[in-house]
Request: fold
Amino acid sequence: MNTSLIPGQRQSPDAITVRGLNKMYGLPKGGTLTAVDQLDLTIRAGETYALLGPNGAGKSTTIEILEGHRKPDSGEVMVLGTRPWKAPSFRARIGIVLQEATDSGELRVSEALRSLAACFPAPRPVDEVIEAVGLGGKGGVRISTLSGGQRRRLDVALGVIGNPEVLFLDEPTTGFDPEARRQFWDLIRQLSSGGTTIVLTTHYLDEAEQLAGRIGVINHGRLIAEGSPQEIGGPGFRVPRVRWRDGSGLREVVTEQPASLVASLSDGGAIEPAELAVVRPSLEDIYLQLIGAEPSAVHPSRPPPTVRPGAHQSCAWGLAGSCWRSNYLTVTCYLWSCSSRS
Reply:
């Protein structure tokens, strides 16, 4: 891969600021559900930030507000210096990679990218993006013939073709094999090193640990922890465990002084306790402790994005008079200032 995915100069030290964000939904049988509850969040320009949380925690609603798809009930939300739901031009400054794989129809890779690039005021060169995402030589290939990993790279290409300052990644490596995941991580690191602000949602904790400079954990609509992968949760969540087996079975002790306990168990190194191991909590361990400390609650599925019934999406760039019907491009056409008319 080359190093061409470099966005323009950024003016503000913070790409995203959220203060006191609230969002509620009405329930079918009356009452309301608080999806986001007094959320505060700051994401610096150029950083990769992972927003983690269980299903129903409020992270999807939060991301949709940041992308401009939903309007908050109250609170202050600024993305790239604008209120995202109020500024149509803002949408040309962000990119979105949805969780669903591209539904290609019969388009070729370069056709899809050129069609979408026409929606943006200053897109990146199509051939340059194809090379940068590792699809060199695939520009003339029909998307339906690409492998799953190649399609996901195309999703990223579609997300960055508009030269976004902020890129939202939703579960980007779901279904990837280990090799494809690591190649994808290299691509995201390249984008980050070029100055793109990346907001990542993922259920793979190792992915968040590999890619994110900071992690936020959201549960029941509130940010319950934040920090680097090495620091989140604080010292109390990172106390080592010493495990060994003796005549009574498998033993485990949580201790802040594992070396002293190991020395005692081994009689100063004279004996080797069976199955001796010092285990430090992984990010997954810490995450599970964090969300487990919260009271349980049942959250219904988030409501779908609002689209006018019977609306027909039609893009300024034509393409036989209608949008290419992909999961990404249909949403993109509707939101990215391409005309929508009933």
Summary: The chain has two domains: 14-232+295-341, 239-280.
